[in-house]
Amino acid sequence: MELHLEKRCISAYVENQIGVLAKISGLFAGKNYNLDTLTVGETEDPTMSRMTIELTCDDLTYEQIIKQLNRSVEVIKVIDFTDMPITKKELLFIKINSCKEADKQEIFRIAETFNLEVIDYNRKSVLVQCVKTVSKNNDMIALFKDMFVNRIEVVRGGSVAIEAGSDFALRASQGQSLAFSSYLLVPATLTVFGRGPRPSKVTALV
What we know:
single chain; 5 helices; 9 strands; elongated
């Protein structure tokens, strides 16, 4: 029987303590689960961090991963983003080396056309920042590879994701051009993590 592999996205609130990232990544390594990306950072509550985990797996493996995360004492809450409307972006740096003046002019034209940001440059190199979806970042890498053969360096930061608060936000995150006035933005019902009691450990399967 052929297994159906699908890209998945998970958000996990974890204790902001030393060694938690190693424990969570070790959980995946110990079970031979293959991660695509894992990004983590402190939340509005300094005692908690939020992870965005992307992986490709079948349904059975994914169910096991959710259970393993919920059994981990360091994990506070797990949210399955796979079928939820979310806003997700990835940080990408592209450094172009051995640049001549004509190369720099072309890079600035590309940056202006595709809404990229040139954040550093010197006599021989230019550093471009791109904050877009993974697929669009892949397109940017392919473009620069094609135009500046064997002269680019790529650093990717992994995706971060959050629940979309409106259809407008969701479609805008997918790169669609929309008239803002045609949408009534109604806030979604979300759990707010403040200084009150910690949320119980749950899995949100929406």
